[in-house]
């Protein structure tokens, strides 16, 4: 089955398709997105995020179902079109068409449209093979699919973009959009109903027992009420878990997004270990906040009913006041627990920081530190941590043990005068005792809930900076349509200047020493610039400013006549590629090819792999590719093939050269190469980079 062209959008209306889909999928209230921008930029202007979707033929159905809402790139790779997918199951997909109507199409047709190239190459031979086998049409179709899967199952395809609310959007909006608020409302309502039902059930049975005639009708009503409360209780738990999972997922997503928004300097100042510690706290936060939140909410609902029942008892307002005073005492204990828990979690983060630091410096310590000094101070830190834990345990035990039992004694004591004087009726006494027991149950629930909430609050204090970092605003994308084209290199301005640096100054700390002062420089198309200077002179700092990794304190920094804010951070970096100094760069644990092409696009398209290999050979990495069993697809990085210093330097160089940027900055990239390889590498950089800045020592 083929998808009609009237169902899909032409590529030049991708921005419009994005905005229309956002409205149809209730992600954004407006469909008036800018039509000239590409998908990712339109998404950003609508406060959404478009993530690349890469699928293999083998898993396409499952991935497409989970990806909605999504913009799927269909058709042959040289003339792609777009399907705006609102929703899908394994059979049918709902899409929004260019005339803004919503239509249903079969998922098979979507899959065929996505893999039309593979179909084109392998469909013919498979059909020819099946021609020779007599099969009914349905079995033939199944056999065809299975054979194609066998041929191209692992083939990856850049299938378009999944669209979602940006993790930087207000959290409440995210909760609403994900349906978590709706589930929470249903859960609260169900809990309230089940509470009222159970109270009513006990009232029914109490009434008839106290009246002295337990007839069948009352018993049946009581049983019916209890039976009704069972499915409601099951629904409450189901909704609670659903909301828990949904909110937890959003929280994790937002915090991990926040980590990526941190400035590298900030990460450095905080310490990697501290950051890891904060991230670890997310699990506790997610689990405890939700569990504690639900339990406390339920407890507060019970408390409200309890106060009402207590007021109806023989001690009346006196027992209500006593209960409120007991709650105030509980508040003091919880406050003490909070202070202790905060100190405990600070100690935990400090220990995590220390452990990560020790792990990072492990090889240096083994090589250079006397073994006797390896574990100094560890015992002291552990003892202090245990002491914090003991304090928290003591107060938690006091809260869990004393609050409910203490209240039971106090509440019954408050009923004492009425019992002794026999001034209250049996019914009033039953209500009074029932109220005291209800209050004890609510207190038990409340102590469990609040203890979890205190733990969640301590975890929140650690994770909050990352949560807030997610909302940091980034320079808006340029509305200049040129920025939508990822691969085009900007032509130089009429005066020949590509990069214009005027009176730029920079310092790392607000009142610290200036690392750069009054720097003025002009780089034209095809310029080859060598930046030399003494160690600590500010060469790398200048490189990072040009590459947009840092922002100047003052002065002007222009590319093609526009500053970084006008281009947008992403567009700027696409135009100026840098291979930072060795210790600032990283080989990711993935294939060699991914490490080469990550700055360009992944999965590779067209001639990407061929070009990557050609650059590697020009840089003298041919013998390495021959030695690695997987060639370009060899896994490298911390857990893979260990590259030598010089090999890594050239990998970083190739990564920058492959980005198709107008300006390439190489920071000390040649320092670790032997003279022969250095000549090769320099020749490659001079040939490949449109404009080149090389930072080196004299
Ligand atoms: N993150 C930082 N925080 C504070 N100061 C820094 C930071 N990074 C660099 N500096 C300081 O800024 C100055 C310039 O450093 P930069 O790395 O730019 O020098 P460089 O010329 O590249 O040196 P080298 O040739 O040794 O690599 C140095 O004095 C350095 O100590």
From TrEMBL:
Places the protein is found: Cell membrane
Keywords annotated in UniProt: ATP-binding, Membrane, Nucleotide-binding, Transmembrane, Transmembrane helix
GO molecular function: ATP binding
Annotated signal peptide: none
Principal localisation: membrane
Location of the ABC transporter domain: 499-697
ABC transmembrane type-1 domain segment(s): 186-462
Membrane-topology annotation of the record: Multi-pass membrane protein
Keyword Membrane part of the UniProt annotation: yes
Regions that span the bilayer: 183-205, 217-239, 397-422
Name of protein: ABC transporter ATP-binding protein/permease
Pfam families: ABC_tran
Superkingdom to which the source organism belongs: Bacteria
């Amino acid at each position: 089955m083929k998808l009609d062209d009237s169902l899909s959008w032409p590529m030049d209306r991708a921005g419009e398709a994005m905005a229309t889909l956002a409205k149809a999928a209730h992600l954004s209230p407006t469909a008036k997105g800018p039509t000239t921008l590409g998908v990712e930029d339109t998404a950003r202007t609508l406060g959404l995020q478009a993530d690349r979707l890469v699928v293999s033929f083998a898993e396409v159905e499952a991935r497409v179902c989970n990806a909605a809402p999504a913009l799927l790139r269909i058709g042959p790779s040289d003339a792609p079109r777009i399907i705006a997918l609102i929703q899908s199951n394994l059979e049918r997909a709902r899409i929004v068409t260019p005339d803004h109507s919503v239509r249903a199409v079969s998922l098979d047709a979507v899959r065929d449209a996505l893999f039309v190239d593979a179909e084109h190459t392998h469909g013919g031979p498979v059909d020819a093979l099946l021609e020779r086998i007599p099969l009914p049409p349905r079995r033939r179709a199944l056999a065809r699919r299975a054979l194609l899967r066998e041929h191209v199952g692992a083939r990856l395809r850049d299938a378009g973009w999944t669209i979602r609310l940006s993790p930087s959007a207000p959290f409440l909006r995210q909760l609403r959009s994900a349906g978590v608020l709706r589930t929470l409302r249903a859960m609260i309502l169900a809990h309230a109903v089940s509470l009222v039902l159970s109270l009513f059930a006990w009232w029914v049975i109490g009434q008839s027992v106290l009246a002295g005639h337990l007839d069948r009708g009352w018993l049946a009503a009581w049983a019916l009420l209890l039976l009704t409360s069972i499915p409601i209780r099951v629904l409450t738990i189901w909704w609670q878990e659903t909301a828990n999972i949904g909110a937890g997922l959003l929280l994790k997503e937002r915090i991990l997004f926040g980590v990526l928004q941190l400035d590298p300097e900030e990460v450095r100042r905080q310490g990697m270990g501290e950051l890891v510690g904060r991230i670890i706290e997310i699990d506790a936060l997610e689990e405890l906040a939700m569990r504690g939140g639900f339990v406390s909410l339920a407890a507060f609902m019970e408390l409200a009913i309890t106060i009402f029942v207590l007021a109806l008892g023989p001690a009346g307002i006196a027992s209500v006041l006593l209960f409120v005073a007991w709650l105030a005492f509980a508040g003091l204990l919880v406050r003490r627990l909070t202070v202790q828990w905060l100190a405990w979690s600070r100690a935990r983060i400090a220990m995590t920081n220390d452990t990560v630091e020790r792990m990072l410096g492990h090889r240096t310590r083994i090589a250079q530190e006397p073994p006797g000094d390896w574990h100094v101070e560890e015992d002291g830190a552990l003892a202090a941590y245990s002491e914090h834990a003991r304090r928290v345990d003591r107060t938690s035990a006091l809260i869990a043990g004393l609050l409910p039992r203490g209240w039971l004694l106090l509440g019954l004591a408050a009923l004492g005068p009425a019992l002794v004087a026999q001034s209250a009726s049996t019914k009033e006494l039953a209500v009074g005792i029932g109220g005291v027991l209800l209050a004890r149950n609510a207190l038990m629930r409340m102590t469990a809930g609040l203890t979890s909430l205190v733990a969640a609050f301590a975890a929140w204090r650690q994770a909050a900076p990352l949560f807030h970092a997610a909302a940091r605003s980034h320079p808006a994308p340029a509305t200049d349509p040129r920025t939508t084209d990822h691969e085009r290199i900007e032509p130089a301005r009429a005066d020949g200047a590509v990069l214009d640096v005027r009176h730029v100054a920079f310092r790392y700390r607000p009142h610290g020493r200036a690392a750069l002062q009054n720097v003025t420089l002009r780089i034209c198309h095809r310029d080859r610039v060598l930046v030399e200077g003494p160690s600590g002179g500010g060469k790398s700092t200048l490189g990072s400013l040009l590459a947009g990794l840092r922002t100047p304190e003052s002065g002007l920094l222009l590319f093609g006549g526009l500053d970084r804010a006008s281009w947008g951070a992403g567009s700027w970096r696409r135009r100026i590629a840098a291979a930072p100094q060795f210790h600032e760069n990283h080989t990711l644990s993935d294939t060699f090819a991914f490490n080469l092409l990550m700055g360009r696009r992944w999965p590779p398209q067209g001639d990407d792999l061929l070009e990557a290999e050609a650059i590697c050979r020009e840089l003298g990495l041919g013998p390495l590719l021959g030695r690695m069993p997987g060639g370009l697809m060899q896994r490298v990085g911390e857990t893979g093939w260990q590259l030598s210093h010089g090999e890594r330097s050239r990998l970083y160089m190739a990564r920058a050269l492959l980005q198709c940027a107008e300006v390439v900055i190489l920071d000390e990239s040649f320092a670790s190469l032997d003279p022969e390889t250095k000549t090769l590498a320099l020749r490659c950089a001079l040939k490949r980079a449109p404009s080149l800045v090389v930072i080196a020592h004299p």
